[in-house]
Design goal:
The protein contains 14 helices and 24 strands. With about 625 residues, it is of the alpha+beta class. The protein has three domains: about 190 residues, 3-Layer(aba) Sandwich (Rossmann fold), CATH 3.40.50.150; about 220 residues, Bira Bifunctional Protein, Domain 2 (BirA Bifunctional Protein, domain 2, 2-Layer Sandwich); about 90 residues, Ferrodoxin-fold anticodon-binding domain (Alpha-Beta Plaits).
Length: about 625
Protein backbone atom coordinates (compact mmCIF):
# COMPACT_ATOMS: atom_id res chain seq x y z
CA UNK A 1 0.00 0.00 0.00
CA UNK A 2 1.15 3.56 -0.76
CA UNK A 3 2.30 5.61 2.21
CA UNK A 4 0.27 8.69 3.10
CA UNK A 5 2.73 11.58 2.99
CA UNK A 6 2.17 14.24 5.64
CA UNK A 7 3.95 17.62 5.76
CA UNK A 8 4.02 19.62 9.00
CA UNK A 9 4.96 23.30 8.87
CA UNK A 10 5.94 25.81 11.54
CA UNK A 11 6.59 23.20 14.23
CA UNK A 12 7.74 24.99 17.37
CA UNK A 13 9.03 22.05 19.41
CA UNK A 14 7.97 19.13 17.15
CA UNK A 15 5.56 17.82 19.80
CA UNK A 16 2.63 17.73 17.36
CA UNK A 17 4.73 15.94 14.74
CA UNK A 18 5.89 13.44 17.36
CA UNK A 19 2.26 12.59 18.16
CA UNK A 20 1.69 11.61 14.51
CA UNK A 21 4.92 9.67 14.10
CA UNK A 22 4.41 5.92 14.16
CA UNK A 23 0.91 6.01 12.70
CA UNK A 24 0.60 3.10 10.30
CA UNK A 25 0.92 3.89 6.60
CA UNK A 26 2.08 7.47 7.24
CA UNK A 27 5.33 9.12 6.20
CA UNK A 28 5.95 12.31 8.20
CA UNK A 29 8.03 15.29 7.08
CA UNK A 30 8.26 17.74 9.99
CA UNK A 31 9.63 21.25 9.39
CA UNK A 32 10.44 24.33 11.38
CA UNK A 33 10.95 27.95 10.26
CA UNK A 34 13.87 28.57 12.60
CA UNK A 35 17.35 27.06 12.34
CA UNK A 36 18.30 23.94 14.29
CA UNK A 37 20.45 26.01 16.65
CA UNK A 38 17.53 28.32 17.47
CA UNK A 39 15.17 25.44 18.14
CA UNK A 40 17.47 23.29 20.28
CA UNK A 41 16.99 25.54 23.31
CA UNK A 42 13.21 24.99 23.38
CA UNK A 43 11.92 22.60 25.95
CA UNK A 44 11.52 19.09 24.50
CA UNK A 45 12.42 20.10 20.93
CA UNK A 46 15.66 18.12 20.64
CA UNK A 47 14.08 15.00 22.17
CA UNK A 48 11.05 15.18 19.88
CA UNK A 49 13.28 15.63 16.82
CA UNK A 50 15.31 12.59 17.85
CA UNK A 51 12.15 10.49 18.29
CA UNK A 52 10.91 11.57 14.88
CA UNK A 53 14.13 10.58 13.13
CA UNK A 54 14.22 7.24 14.95
CA UNK A 55 10.65 6.63 13.83
CA UNK A 56 11.57 7.13 10.18
CA UNK A 57 10.35 10.72 9.86
CA UNK A 58 12.26 13.47 8.08
CA UNK A 59 13.05 16.62 10.09
CA UNK A 60 13.92 19.84 8.28
CA UNK A 61 14.88 23.28 9.62
CA UNK A 62 14.78 26.81 8.13
CA UNK A 63 11.78 25.96 5.92
CA UNK A 64 9.75 28.93 4.64
CA UNK A 65 6.10 27.94 4.24
CA UNK A 66 5.66 30.42 1.39
CA UNK A 67 8.33 28.75 -0.82
CA UNK A 68 7.68 25.04 -0.29
CA UNK A 69 8.60 23.76 -3.75
CA UNK A 70 12.17 25.04 -3.20
CA UNK A 71 12.76 22.42 -0.51
CA UNK A 72 11.58 19.31 -2.36
CA UNK A 73 12.57 17.66 -5.61
CA UNK A 74 9.75 17.46 -8.21
CA UNK A 75 9.08 13.79 -7.41
CA UNK A 76 8.79 14.65 -3.69
CA UNK A 77 6.17 17.41 -4.10
CA UNK A 78 3.15 15.20 -3.62
CA UNK A 79 1.86 15.49 -0.05
CA UNK A 80 -1.52 14.06 0.92
CA UNK A 81 -1.91 16.34 3.91
CA UNK A 82 -0.29 19.58 5.05
CA UNK A 83 -0.59 20.74 8.68
CA UNK A 84 0.07 24.32 9.74
CA UNK A 85 -0.83 24.81 13.41
CA UNK A 86 -1.24 28.35 14.70
CA UNK A 87 0.62 30.25 11.96
CA UNK A 88 1.83 33.71 12.89
CA UNK A 89 4.29 36.25 11.53
CA UNK A 90 5.75 36.62 15.01
CA UNK A 91 5.80 39.16 17.81
CA UNK A 92 3.01 41.76 17.47
CA UNK A 93 2.20 41.27 13.78
CA UNK A 94 -1.32 42.48 12.97
CA UNK A 95 -4.17 40.79 11.08
CA UNK A 96 -3.13 42.21 7.69
CA UNK A 97 0.38 40.74 7.84
CA UNK A 98 -0.97 37.39 9.00
CA UNK A 99 -3.51 37.36 6.16
CA UNK A 100 -0.65 37.96 3.73
CA UNK A 101 1.28 35.09 5.31
CA UNK A 102 -1.69 32.75 4.88
CA UNK A 103 -2.26 33.87 1.29
CA UNK A 104 1.35 33.11 0.31
CA UNK A 105 1.22 29.83 2.26
CA UNK A 106 -1.87 28.60 0.38
CA UNK A 107 -0.37 29.49 -3.00
CA UNK A 108 2.83 27.69 -2.03
CA UNK A 109 0.92 24.63 -0.75
CA UNK A 110 -0.95 24.31 -4.05
CA UNK A 111 2.40 23.45 -5.66
CA UNK A 112 3.17 20.48 -3.38
CA UNK A 113 -0.28 19.04 -2.56
CA UNK A 114 -1.90 16.09 -4.33
CA UNK A 115 -5.16 16.72 -6.20
CA UNK A 116 -7.19 14.99 -3.47
CA UNK A 117 -5.05 16.33 -0.63
CA UNK A 118 -6.05 18.34 2.44
CA UNK A 119 -4.63 21.39 4.21
CA UNK A 120 -5.21 21.62 7.97
CA UNK A 121 -4.81 25.06 9.53
CA UNK A 122 -5.37 25.47 13.28
CA UNK A 123 -6.18 29.00 14.48
CA UNK A 124 -6.91 30.50 17.89
CA UNK A 125 -10.50 31.31 18.75
CA UNK A 126 -11.85 34.16 16.60
CA UNK A 127 -8.91 34.47 14.23
CA UNK A 128 -10.50 32.65 11.28
CA UNK A 129 -13.47 34.97 10.97
CA UNK A 130 -16.00 32.22 10.16
CA UNK A 131 -19.36 31.55 11.85
CA UNK A 132 -17.69 28.55 13.53
CA UNK A 133 -15.78 30.97 15.77
CA UNK A 134 -17.59 31.71 19.01
CA UNK A 135 -17.57 34.56 19.66
CA UNK A 136 -17.06 35.69 16.09
CA UNK A 137 -14.87 38.68 15.37
CA UNK A 138 -15.84 41.42 12.96
CA UNK A 139 -14.75 40.47 9.45
CA UNK A 140 -12.23 43.30 9.06
CA UNK A 141 -10.57 42.30 12.35
CA UNK A 142 -10.15 38.61 11.45
CA UNK A 143 -7.67 36.69 9.31
CA UNK A 144 -10.44 36.05 6.74
CA UNK A 145 -9.07 32.58 6.18
CA UNK A 146 -11.79 31.34 3.80
CA UNK A 147 -11.40 34.31 1.45
CA UNK A 148 -7.60 34.10 1.62
CA UNK A 149 -7.65 30.37 0.79
CA UNK A 150 -10.09 30.95 -2.07
CA UNK A 151 -7.53 33.15 -3.77
CA UNK A 152 -5.31 30.08 -4.14
CA UNK A 153 -8.13 27.77 -5.27
CA UNK A 154 -9.08 26.15 -1.94
CA UNK A 155 -12.44 25.76 -0.21
CA UNK A 156 -13.16 25.13 3.47
CA UNK A 157 -14.58 21.61 3.58
CA UNK A 158 -14.62 20.97 7.32
CA UNK A 159 -13.97 22.72 10.60
CA UNK A 160 -13.83 21.23 14.08
CA UNK A 161 -12.38 22.03 17.53
CA UNK A 162 -8.62 21.70 17.96
CA UNK A 163 -8.49 19.62 21.15
CA UNK A 164 -4.91 20.00 22.35
CA UNK A 165 -5.58 17.90 25.45
CA UNK A 166 -6.29 14.82 23.31
CA UNK A 167 -2.93 15.01 21.49
CA UNK A 168 -0.43 12.94 23.43
CA UNK A 169 2.65 14.93 24.42
CA UNK A 170 1.55 18.08 22.60
CA UNK A 171 2.65 21.41 24.01
CA UNK A 172 2.04 24.66 22.14
CA UNK A 173 4.87 27.18 22.09
CA UNK A 174 5.90 30.35 20.30
CA UNK A 175 3.92 33.11 22.02
CA UNK A 176 5.32 36.33 20.55
CA UNK A 177 8.24 34.33 19.09
CA UNK A 178 9.27 33.11 22.57
CA UNK A 179 9.37 29.65 24.14
CA UNK A 180 6.07 30.36 25.88
CA UNK A 181 2.69 28.69 25.52
CA UNK A 182 -0.50 30.49 24.52
CA UNK A 183 -4.21 29.93 25.02
CA UNK A 184 -5.69 27.36 22.62
CA UNK A 185 -9.09 27.10 24.30
CA UNK A 186 -11.76 27.37 21.61
CA UNK A 187 -9.17 26.91 18.83
CA UNK A 188 -10.42 25.49 15.54
CA UNK A 189 -8.89 23.21 12.93
CA UNK A 190 -9.84 24.33 9.40
CA UNK A 191 -9.62 21.67 6.68
CA UNK A 192 -9.26 22.91 3.10
CA UNK A 193 -9.48 20.99 -0.17
CA UNK A 194 -8.92 21.92 -3.79
CA UNK A 195 -11.81 23.48 -5.65
CA UNK A 196 -12.80 22.75 -9.20
CA UNK A 197 -11.84 25.86 -11.22
CA UNK A 198 -14.46 28.43 -12.14
CA UNK A 199 -15.88 27.55 -15.52
CA UNK A 200 -15.22 29.69 -18.56
CA UNK A 201 -17.05 27.51 -21.06
CA UNK A 202 -16.34 27.89 -24.75
CA UNK A 203 -19.24 28.50 -27.15
CA UNK A 204 -20.80 25.30 -28.41
CA UNK A 205 -23.44 24.13 -30.87
CA UNK A 206 -26.03 21.45 -30.29
CA UNK A 207 -28.18 19.21 -32.52
CA UNK A 208 -31.86 18.47 -32.17
CA UNK A 209 -34.78 17.42 -34.34
CA UNK A 210 -37.08 20.13 -35.60
CA UNK A 211 -39.95 19.68 -38.08
CA UNK A 212 -38.68 16.20 -39.02
CA UNK A 213 -35.13 17.29 -39.79
CA UNK A 214 -31.87 17.58 -37.88
CA UNK A 215 -30.87 21.14 -37.07
CA UNK A 216 -27.98 22.72 -35.22
CA UNK A 217 -28.08 25.78 -33.02
CA UNK A 218 -25.67 27.77 -30.92
CA UNK A 219 -26.31 27.18 -27.23
CA UNK A 220 -26.79 30.41 -25.24
CA UNK A 221 -23.52 30.98 -23.40
CA UNK A 222 -25.20 31.02 -20.00
CA UNK A 223 -26.41 27.43 -20.59
CA UNK A 224 -23.30 25.88 -22.15
CA UNK A 225 -22.36 23.94 -19.01
CA UNK A 226 -25.94 22.77 -18.45
CA UNK A 227 -26.92 21.35 -21.83
CA UNK A 228 -26.96 17.55 -22.35
CA UNK A 229 -25.85 16.74 -18.79
CA UNK A 230 -27.84 13.48 -18.75
CA UNK A 231 -29.26 13.76 -15.22
CA UNK A 232 -32.28 11.62 -16.18
CA UNK A 233 -30.43 8.93 -18.12
CA UNK A 234 -30.62 5.27 -17.05
CA UNK A 235 -27.10 5.15 -15.58
CA UNK A 236 -27.52 8.39 -13.61
CA UNK A 237 -27.47 8.47 -9.81
CA UNK A 238 -28.39 12.17 -9.70
CA UNK A 239 -31.06 12.94 -7.05
CA UNK A 240 -33.25 14.50 -9.77
CA UNK A 241 -33.51 11.08 -11.46
CA UNK A 242 -34.21 9.35 -8.13
CA UNK A 243 -37.14 11.71 -7.47
CA UNK A 244 -38.51 11.14 -10.98
CA UNK A 245 -38.25 7.34 -10.71
CA UNK A 246 -39.92 7.24 -7.30
CA UNK A 247 -42.83 9.48 -8.38
CA UNK A 248 -43.30 7.51 -11.62
CA UNK A 249 -43.29 4.20 -9.74
CA UNK A 250 -45.96 5.46 -7.35
CA UNK A 251 -48.10 6.81 -10.19
CA UNK A 252 -47.96 3.40 -11.87
CA UNK A 253 -49.73 1.93 -8.84
CA UNK A 254 -52.87 3.94 -9.69
CA UNK A 255 -52.59 4.48 -13.47
CA UNK A 256 -51.36 2.61 -16.53
CA UNK A 257 -48.19 4.67 -17.20
CA UNK A 258 -46.52 5.26 -20.54
CA UNK A 259 -43.19 7.10 -20.72
CA UNK A 260 -43.28 9.43 -23.72
CA UNK A 261 -40.15 11.56 -23.30
CA UNK A 262 -38.01 10.12 -26.10
CA UNK A 263 -37.09 12.35 -29.07
CA UNK A 264 -38.54 15.55 -27.63
CA UNK A 265 -37.03 18.50 -29.47
CA UNK A 266 -35.08 21.03 -27.44
CA UNK A 267 -36.65 23.76 -29.60
CA UNK A 268 -40.22 24.99 -29.78
CA UNK A 269 -41.77 27.29 -32.35
CA UNK A 270 -42.73 30.77 -31.25
CA UNK A 271 -44.14 33.19 -30.61
CA UNK A 272 -45.61 31.49 -27.55
CA UNK A 273 -49.01 32.87 -26.70
CA UNK A 274 -48.75 35.51 -24.00
CA UNK A 275 -45.06 34.91 -23.26
CA UNK A 276 -42.78 37.94 -23.22
CA UNK A 277 -39.65 37.75 -25.36
CA UNK A 278 -37.48 38.42 -22.31
CA UNK A 279 -38.49 35.19 -20.55
CA UNK A 280 -37.28 32.66 -23.11
CA UNK A 281 -34.03 31.90 -24.90
CA UNK A 282 -34.59 32.68 -28.59
CA UNK A 283 -32.63 30.51 -30.99
CA UNK A 284 -31.68 30.69 -34.68
CA UNK A 285 -31.48 27.09 -35.96
CA UNK A 286 -29.43 26.04 -38.96
CA UNK A 287 -30.06 22.97 -41.14
CA UNK A 288 -26.33 22.71 -41.85
CA UNK A 289 -23.36 22.59 -39.53
CA UNK A 290 -22.96 25.86 -37.69
CA UNK A 291 -19.61 27.66 -37.66
CA UNK A 292 -17.08 26.27 -35.23
CA UNK A 293 -16.74 27.66 -31.74
CA UNK A 294 -13.51 29.33 -32.83
CA UNK A 295 -15.37 31.14 -35.59
CA UNK A 296 -18.08 32.27 -33.18
CA UNK A 297 -15.75 33.60 -30.50
CA UNK A 298 -17.91 34.45 -27.48
CA UNK A 299 -20.93 34.34 -29.77
CA UNK A 300 -20.38 37.99 -30.63
CA UNK A 301 -17.32 38.70 -32.77
CA UNK A 302 -18.55 36.86 -35.84
CA UNK A 303 -22.28 37.25 -35.36
CA UNK A 304 -22.55 38.54 -38.93
CA UNK A 305 -20.99 35.34 -40.27
CA UNK A 306 -23.36 33.22 -38.19
CA UNK A 307 -26.40 35.23 -39.34
CA UNK A 308 -25.33 34.83 -42.97
CA UNK A 309 -25.04 31.05 -42.63
CA UNK A 310 -28.37 30.83 -40.81
CA UNK A 311 -30.20 32.96 -43.36
CA UNK A 312 -28.73 30.93 -46.24
CA UNK A 313 -29.83 27.70 -44.55
CA UNK A 314 -33.31 29.05 -43.86
CA UNK A 315 -33.76 29.87 -47.56
CA UNK A 316 -32.58 26.38 -48.52
CA UNK A 317 -34.84 24.67 -46.01
CA UNK A 318 -37.90 26.71 -46.91
CA UNK A 319 -38.17 28.47 -43.56
CA UNK A 320 -37.77 31.81 -45.36
CA UNK A 321 -37.94 32.71 -49.07
CA UNK A 322 -35.45 34.51 -51.28
CA UNK A 323 -37.39 37.77 -51.20
CA UNK A 324 -37.50 37.82 -47.40
CA UNK A 325 -33.71 37.76 -47.23
CA UNK A 326 -32.74 37.50 -43.58
CA UNK A 327 -36.22 38.13 -42.25
CA UNK A 328 -37.20 35.11 -40.16
CA UNK A 329 -40.70 33.79 -40.88
CA UNK A 330 -40.64 31.41 -37.91
CA UNK A 331 -39.22 31.99 -34.47
CA UNK A 332 -37.80 29.27 -32.25
CA UNK A 333 -36.81 29.13 -28.63
CA UNK A 334 -35.35 26.63 -26.20
CA UNK A 335 -38.36 24.85 -24.76
CA UNK A 336 -39.60 26.68 -21.64
CA UNK A 337 -42.00 23.83 -20.78
CA UNK A 338 -42.90 20.28 -21.79
CA UNK A 339 -46.64 21.05 -21.72
CA UNK A 340 -46.83 21.68 -25.50
CA UNK A 341 -45.56 18.12 -26.09
CA UNK A 342 -48.20 16.77 -23.72
CA UNK A 343 -50.82 18.70 -25.69
CA UNK A 344 -49.51 17.18 -28.93
CA UNK A 345 -50.10 13.68 -27.55
CA UNK A 346 -53.72 14.57 -26.85
CA UNK A 347 -54.30 16.43 -30.11
CA UNK A 348 -52.83 13.59 -32.17
CA UNK A 349 -55.20 11.21 -30.47
CA UNK A 350 -52.19 9.06 -29.53
CA UNK A 351 -53.61 8.04 -26.16
CA UNK A 352 -55.91 5.64 -24.40
CA UNK A 353 -58.42 7.17 -21.97
CA UNK A 354 -57.22 6.57 -18.41
CA UNK A 355 -53.57 6.05 -19.44
CA UNK A 356 -51.09 8.45 -17.87
CA UNK A 357 -48.47 9.70 -20.31
CA UNK A 358 -45.31 10.89 -18.54
CA UNK A 359 -42.76 13.24 -20.13
CA UNK A 360 -39.59 14.56 -18.49
CA UNK A 361 -36.56 16.59 -19.46
CA UNK A 362 -34.78 19.91 -18.96
CA UNK A 363 -36.62 23.16 -19.70
CA UNK A 364 -35.15 26.64 -20.02
CA UNK A 365 -36.41 30.01 -18.80
CA UNK A 366 -34.78 33.36 -18.27
CA UNK A 367 -35.45 34.54 -14.72
CA UNK A 368 -34.19 36.84 -12.00
CA UNK A 369 -31.33 35.61 -9.81
CA UNK A 370 -32.27 33.96 -6.51
CA UNK A 371 -31.38 30.68 -4.72
CA UNK A 372 -34.59 29.01 -5.94
CA UNK A 373 -34.99 30.60 -9.38
CA UNK A 374 -33.55 28.31 -12.02
CA UNK A 375 -32.80 29.20 -15.65
CA UNK A 376 -32.87 25.47 -16.34
CA UNK A 377 -34.58 22.65 -14.44
CA UNK A 378 -36.02 19.22 -15.10
CA UNK A 379 -39.76 19.21 -15.55
CA UNK A 380 -41.96 16.13 -15.28
CA UNK A 381 -45.32 16.42 -17.01
CA UNK A 382 -48.12 13.87 -16.69
CA UNK A 383 -51.20 14.00 -18.94
CA UNK A 384 -54.32 11.87 -18.78
CA UNK A 385 -57.63 11.91 -20.69
CA UNK A 386 -60.58 10.96 -18.48
CA UNK A 387 -64.37 10.94 -18.70
CA UNK A 388 -65.88 14.34 -18.09
CA UNK A 389 -67.07 14.69 -14.54
CA UNK A 390 -64.24 12.53 -13.16
CA UNK A 391 -61.50 15.18 -13.36
CA UNK A 392 -61.53 15.86 -9.62
CA UNK A 393 -61.15 12.17 -8.87
CA UNK A 394 -58.19 11.95 -11.27
CA UNK A 395 -56.57 15.04 -9.69
CA UNK A 396 -56.93 13.57 -6.22
CA UNK A 397 -55.36 10.28 -7.33
CA UNK A 398 -52.46 12.18 -8.88
CA UNK A 399 -51.90 14.27 -5.76
CA UNK A 400 -52.13 11.24 -3.46
CA UNK A 401 -49.55 9.37 -5.53
CA UNK A 402 -47.20 12.36 -5.50
CA UNK A 403 -47.68 12.77 -1.75
CA UNK A 404 -46.97 9.09 -1.07
CA UNK A 405 -43.80 9.06 -3.17
CA UNK A 406 -42.43 12.29 -1.64
CA UNK A 407 -43.19 11.19 1.92
CA UNK A 408 -41.46 7.89 1.23
CA UNK A 409 -38.35 9.67 -0.10
CA UNK A 410 -38.41 12.20 2.71
CA UNK A 411 -38.63 9.67 5.54
CA UNK A 412 -35.45 8.01 4.29
CA UNK A 413 -33.60 11.34 4.33
CA UNK A 414 -34.47 13.41 7.40
CA UNK A 415 -36.62 13.72 10.48
CA UNK A 416 -38.34 17.09 10.00
CA UNK A 417 -41.98 17.23 8.96
CA UNK A 418 -42.92 17.57 5.30
CA UNK A 419 -46.38 18.89 4.47
CA UNK A 420 -47.69 18.60 0.92
CA UNK A 421 -50.88 20.43 0.03
CA UNK A 422 -52.97 21.27 -3.02
CA UNK A 423 -53.83 24.97 -3.12
CA UNK A 424 -56.19 26.66 -5.52
CA UNK A 425 -54.56 29.11 -7.91
CA UNK A 426 -57.01 31.80 -6.83
CA UNK A 427 -55.19 32.03 -3.49
CA UNK A 428 -52.11 33.29 -5.36
CA UNK A 429 -53.85 36.02 -7.35
CA UNK A 430 -51.64 38.82 -6.03
CA UNK A 431 -48.29 37.03 -5.72
CA UNK A 432 -46.68 34.02 -7.28
CA UNK A 433 -45.93 31.13 -4.93
CA UNK A 434 -42.31 30.79 -3.81
CA UNK A 435 -40.18 28.68 -6.13
CA UNK A 436 -42.56 29.01 -9.09
CA UNK A 437 -41.09 30.64 -12.18
CA UNK A 438 -44.24 31.41 -14.12
CA UNK A 439 -44.74 31.76 -17.84
CA UNK A 440 -47.61 34.08 -18.56
CA UNK A 441 -49.42 31.71 -20.89
CA UNK A 442 -49.69 29.11 -18.13
CA UNK A 443 -51.09 31.29 -15.37
CA UNK A 444 -54.62 31.60 -16.71
CA UNK A 445 -54.93 27.82 -17.06
CA UNK A 446 -53.55 26.75 -13.68
CA UNK A 447 -56.17 25.54 -11.25
CA UNK A 448 -54.00 24.16 -8.46
CA UNK A 449 -50.50 24.57 -7.10
CA UNK A 450 -48.76 21.64 -5.44
CA UNK A 451 -47.07 23.18 -2.40
CA UNK A 452 -44.51 21.81 0.04
CA UNK A 453 -43.96 23.19 3.51
CA UNK A 454 -41.22 22.00 5.86
CA UNK A 455 -41.37 22.22 9.65
CA UNK A 456 -37.84 22.39 11.09
CA UNK A 457 -37.01 22.97 14.76
CA UNK A 458 -40.62 23.77 15.51
CA UNK A 459 -40.75 26.83 13.20
CA UNK A 460 -42.53 26.49 9.90
CA UNK A 461 -40.63 27.72 6.87
CA UNK A 462 -42.11 29.39 3.83
CA UNK A 463 -43.85 26.98 1.48
CA UNK A 464 -42.62 26.22 -2.02
CA UNK A 465 -44.61 25.53 -5.15
CA UNK A 466 -43.19 22.35 -6.68
CA UNK A 467 -45.81 21.83 -9.37
CA UNK A 468 -49.13 22.70 -10.96
CA UNK A 469 -52.29 20.89 -12.02
CA UNK A 470 -54.73 22.05 -14.66
CA UNK A 471 -57.65 20.62 -16.61
CA UNK A 472 -58.77 21.34 -20.17
CA UNK A 473 -61.82 20.50 -22.24
CA UNK A 474 -60.97 22.24 -25.52
CA UNK A 475 -57.97 19.99 -26.22
CA UNK A 476 -60.20 17.13 -27.46
CA UNK A 477 -62.76 16.77 -30.19
CA UNK A 478 -64.73 14.40 -27.98
CA UNK A 479 -67.21 16.09 -25.68
CA UNK A 480 -67.18 13.07 -23.41
CA UNK A 481 -63.52 13.41 -22.37
CA UNK A 482 -61.51 15.96 -20.40
CA UNK A 483 -57.74 16.26 -19.98
CA UNK A 484 -55.78 16.59 -16.74
CA UNK A 485 -52.19 17.94 -16.83
CA UNK A 486 -49.76 17.78 -13.90
CA UNK A 487 -46.33 19.43 -13.92
CA UNK A 488 -43.55 18.93 -11.33
CA UNK A 489 -40.23 20.74 -10.87
CA UNK A 490 -37.95 17.78 -10.14
CA UNK A 491 -34.95 19.98 -9.29
CA UNK A 492 -36.83 21.92 -6.62
CA UNK A 493 -38.17 18.68 -5.14
CA UNK A 494 -34.64 17.23 -4.96
CA UNK A 495 -33.43 20.42 -3.24
CA UNK A 496 -36.17 20.39 -0.61
CA UNK A 497 -35.88 16.67 0.10
CA UNK A 498 -32.06 16.65 0.36
CA UNK A 499 -31.64 19.98 2.15
CA UNK A 500 -29.85 21.69 -0.75
CA UNK A 501 -30.17 25.45 -0.31
CA UNK A 502 -28.85 26.63 -3.70
CA UNK A 503 -30.01 25.33 -7.11
CA UNK A 504 -26.50 25.77 -8.54
CA UNK A 505 -25.26 22.85 -6.43
CA UNK A 506 -27.35 20.45 -8.55
CA UNK A 507 -25.19 21.37 -11.55
CA UNK A 508 -21.77 21.35 -9.89
CA UNK A 509 -18.99 19.53 -11.74
CA UNK A 510 -17.45 18.62 -8.37
CA UNK A 511 -17.68 14.84 -7.99
CA UNK A 512 -18.16 15.18 -4.22
CA UNK A 513 -21.79 16.06 -4.87
CA UNK A 514 -22.85 12.89 -6.70
CA UNK A 515 -20.70 10.69 -4.44
CA UNK A 516 -23.17 11.49 -1.65
CA UNK A 517 -26.06 9.85 -3.52
CA UNK A 518 -25.93 6.09 -4.12
CA UNK A 519 -28.01 4.87 -7.06
CA UNK A 520 -31.71 5.17 -6.31
CA UNK A 521 -31.23 6.73 -2.86
CA UNK A 522 -31.68 10.23 -1.49
CA UNK A 523 -29.64 11.46 1.44
CA UNK A 524 -29.35 14.70 3.37
CA UNK A 525 -26.73 16.71 1.49
CA UNK A 526 -23.61 17.73 3.35
CA UNK A 527 -21.86 20.68 1.75
CA UNK A 528 -18.18 20.41 0.90
CA UNK A 529 -17.73 24.19 0.78
CA UNK A 530 -18.37 25.82 4.16
CA UNK A 531 -18.88 29.55 4.69
CA UNK A 532 -17.99 30.62 1.12
CA UNK A 533 -16.84 34.25 1.02
CA UNK A 534 -19.06 36.86 -0.59
CA UNK A 535 -18.08 40.09 -2.34
CA UNK A 536 -20.26 43.12 -3.00
CA UNK A 537 -19.95 45.45 -5.99
CA UNK A 538 -22.31 48.29 -6.99
CA UNK A 539 -22.94 49.41 -10.55
CA UNK A 540 -24.76 52.62 -11.56
CA UNK A 541 -25.86 53.51 -15.08
CA UNK A 542 -28.09 55.76 -17.16
CA UNK A 543 -30.94 54.12 -19.06
CA UNK A 544 -31.27 54.71 -22.82
CA UNK A 545 -33.77 57.46 -23.59
CA UNK A 546 -37.28 56.19 -24.20
CA UNK A 547 -36.43 52.51 -23.70
CA UNK A 548 -37.82 50.14 -21.10
CA UNK A 549 -35.17 48.56 -18.86
CA UNK A 550 -35.11 44.77 -19.26
CA UNK A 551 -34.22 43.56 -15.77
CA UNK A 552 -34.36 39.88 -16.77
CA UNK A 553 -31.77 40.50 -19.52
CA UNK A 554 -29.64 42.36 -16.95
CA UNK A 555 -29.74 39.35 -14.59
CA UNK A 556 -29.12 36.88 -17.43
CA UNK A 557 -26.03 38.79 -18.53
CA UNK A 558 -24.75 38.74 -14.93
CA UNK A 559 -25.24 34.95 -14.88
CA UNK A 560 -23.34 34.57 -18.14
CA UNK A 561 -20.41 36.86 -17.38
CA UNK A 562 -19.84 35.48 -13.88
CA UNK A 563 -20.41 31.80 -14.66
CA UNK A 564 -23.33 31.80 -12.18
CA UNK A 565 -21.11 33.33 -9.47
CA UNK A 566 -23.62 36.15 -8.79
CA UNK A 567 -25.94 35.05 -6.00
CA UNK A 568 -27.97 38.24 -5.58
CA UNK A 569 -28.83 41.45 -7.46
CA UNK A 570 -30.67 44.16 -5.54
CA UNK A 571 -31.87 47.57 -6.70
CA UNK A 572 -30.24 50.11 -4.39
CA UNK A 573 -31.33 53.43 -5.87
CA UNK A 574 -33.38 54.97 -8.67
CA UNK A 575 -32.80 58.57 -9.75
CA UNK A 576 -34.35 60.83 -12.38
CA UNK A 577 -32.57 63.98 -13.50
CA UNK A 578 -35.08 66.87 -13.22
CA UNK A 579 -33.63 68.89 -16.10
CA UNK A 580 -33.46 66.14 -18.73
CA UNK A 581 -35.74 63.42 -17.37
CA UNK A 582 -32.93 60.85 -17.74
CA UNK A 583 -33.23 57.87 -15.40
CA UNK A 584 -30.39 56.27 -13.51
CA UNK A 585 -30.38 52.98 -11.57
CA UNK A 586 -27.92 51.60 -9.05
CA UNK A 587 -27.75 47.83 -8.45
CA UNK A 588 -25.78 45.88 -5.86
CA UNK A 589 -24.30 42.60 -7.08
CA UNK A 590 -23.25 39.98 -4.53
CA UNK A 591 -20.76 37.42 -5.81
CA UNK A 592 -20.59 34.06 -4.04
CA UNK A 593 -20.03 30.50 -5.22
CA UNK A 594 -21.66 27.58 -3.44
CA UNK A 595 -19.18 24.95 -4.66
CA UNK A 596 -15.98 26.60 -5.93
CA UNK A 597 -13.21 28.87 -4.69
CA UNK A 598 -13.93 32.49 -5.55
CA UNK A 599 -11.25 35.02 -4.72
CA UNK A 600 -11.52 38.80 -4.54
CA UNK A 601 -9.20 39.35 -7.52
CA UNK A 602 -11.26 37.11 -9.76
CA UNK A 603 -14.44 38.87 -8.66
CA UNK A 604 -12.89 42.26 -9.43
CA UNK A 605 -12.18 41.06 -12.98
CA UNK A 606 -15.71 39.66 -13.35
CA UNK A 607 -17.41 42.87 -12.27
CA UNK A 608 -15.26 44.93 -14.66
CA UNK A 609 -16.20 42.57 -17.49
CA UNK A 610 -19.87 42.84 -16.51
CA UNK A 611 -19.69 46.63 -16.67
CA UNK A 612 -18.26 46.39 -20.19
CA UNK A 613 -20.90 43.90 -21.31
CA UNK A 614 -23.92 45.88 -20.10
CA UNK A 615 -22.74 48.89 -22.10
CA UNK A 616 -22.21 46.82 -25.27
CA UNK A 617 -25.16 44.42 -25.00
CA UNK A 618 -27.83 46.48 -23.23
CA UNK A 619 -26.88 49.98 -24.37
CA UNK A 620 -26.48 51.29 -20.82
CA UNK A 621 -24.21 54.24 -19.99
CA UNK A 622 -22.09 53.79 -16.89
CA UNK A 623 -22.02 56.58 -14.33
Amino acid sequence: ALLRRVLLLGEGNFSFAASLCGAGGTQVVATCYESEEEVEGREGAAENARRLREGGAEVLFSVDCTKLKDYFLPEERQFDCIYFNFPHCGRKAGVVRNRELLARFFHSSAEVLTEEGEIHVALCNGQGGTPADQPRREWHNSWQIVAVAAGAGFILSNVHPFKAETIQGYKCTGYRSQDKSFCVEGALNHIFTRSTPLSHSKPMSCETELESQKVSFQVPQVLVDKINRGFLELNSNHPVRTVKEKVTAELSQDFPVQNSDHCLSLLQQGPLSGVGHSNVFWIIPSSEETPSTEEISHGLANAALFSHVVCRDRVKSGWVNEQEGCHVSKEYCLRPSLLPYAREIIQRGAFLPGTLHVLSGPVFRKCLISPYSMPVFHEMVSVCAVNRGTEDSCIQMLVNSIKTSLHSLHQAVSSFNLNIALQEAMSFETTEPNGFAALEYQLSEIQYFICVEMDTSGSQEKGFCVGTIRTAHHELASRELAVVFASLNLDLLAMLLCGISDWRMLWTPDTRFLHQFPRGELRLFKTFSLYPPSYVHDVSFWLPDGEQFDEVAFHTLARQVSGEAVVSIQLRDSFQQPETGRRSLCYRLTFQSCDRALGCREVAKLQLLFREEITQRLGLTLR
